[in-house]
Amino acid sequence: MRPLHLAAALLALTTSSTAAPSHSHRNRACIDLDLEVSVTANNSIYDVPRVDNNIDAVDWIWDMEAWTAPSVADRIKGVRRVDDTFAISAQLCVPGSSDGSDRGRILQIATHGFGFDKTYWDADFDHGKYSYVDAALKAGYSILTYDRLGVGKSDKPDAYDVVQAPVEVEVLKEITLLARTGGLAELVRRKGRGGGGTTTTPQFEKVVLVGHSLGSAITLGVLAGHGDIVEGAVATGLIPTGELGSIGVRSFGLEHAESHDRARFQGRGSGYLVQATESNLQQIFFKKGDFDKRVLRYGAQIKETGTVGEFLSLGAVASQAAPEYSGPVLFALAEYDFATCAGNCTGAYDLETIKHDLLPGASDVRVHIQPGSGHGLTLHLNATGHYQAIFDYLGGQGL
Question: Which in 41, 120, 176, 368 has the greatest CB count within 10 A?
Fold first, then answer.
């Protein structure tokens, strides 16, 4: 296979948060892309109070968590059909040269979860030590990361009826199809011509979806609805049985995003939420003794928003069966995952039920538990061990 490269003059990378530092010290074959993604999806109309300020945010948590509160299913008042086109900010990176494995023609599409943007996969800290993107490139893979709808540089529509998991599943599906049909390569070629360089792009032969937390639920949603367009999947920070959802929204320490930091989150109106403090971030994402305190501060610098609609709709896509999906699935969990396993993932799931009920046609379903890590797997001291476990699994599946 001939070497893979993008434009002769590579674009400098930038993170989506104004507080985050740049990647200028790293020399990589990456390009930033603005994708126009058209989707059609059926969301739900939920009976929930509006969140227009921090007082509302606290009251919303009371409304959700009181023992007398209705279930999420009982809150559904109807269907909200979404038929729209959204701007999605993405970054595509390809390995600089072939290592003889042809892995460069395997595209990983990585979907981040709540609390971060695509920087979750590409932490610019300690010279890229924590970067999953760098690790994937070193392993020979091509990788596309993107800001989910409502996050970072992507569009930020209505937080109640539009930014929900069903729409985000369709966004990921359309990005996957764009890669499979050559549309992504064409976008890169156009951008290369516009910059005056000659661009050679890979024709991706296989796609592996990689998710984290909510991003893993979205990944599983694509397997359920469109399993024939994906060759492999890795769900990190989520497994759809056991303790998932048991900690509730009360554990996140949420505030109304624009009230929390108007300069940083201006324009994210009603229903956009963000974690209030560094300690709130630690409670969900970090395990004491297994992270560098400077990385916790970095996490607070790059933290991002989520929506009321996402919190309500996550469970619906995470628990869907995927009978038509025939590829392998790895659930890559943290030992001390508070968000997914209420603090300890060892024995906190029923793998046989997952195989039988949710992934009956999958060629292989396994779990890897990364020791000494919390929910924010890419931000812990042993992140590279987590990455290697993923690559070893995929390699063993021919991916």
Answer: 120
Read off the amino acid at residue 113.
Answer: G
Instruction: Delimit the domains of the chain by residue range.
Output: 30-45+77-244+318-396
The CATH architecture that domain 30-45+77-244+318-396 belongs to is 3-Layer(aba) Sandwich (3.40)
Q: Mean pLDDT, the chain, as a whole number?
A: 89
Q: Determine the Cα–Cα distance for residues 99 and 195; give it in Å rounded to an integer.
A: 28
Model confidence at 13: pLDDT above 70: no
**Which residues are within 8 A (CB) of 151 and not within 5 positions of it... i.e. 6 or more apart?**
16, 112, 117, 304, 305, 306
Rounded distance, CA 124 to CA 23, Å? Answer: 6
* Cα dihedral value 238, 239, 244, 247, nearest 10: -30
CB atoms within 10 A of CB 284: 20
Tens-digit pLDDT profile for residues 149-179: 999 999 999 999 999 999 999 999 999 999 9
Query: In 3D, which of 274, 263, 252, 299 has the Cα closest to residue 53?
Result: 274
Tokens 């060759």, residue located = 231
Read off the tokens for 288: 């004491």
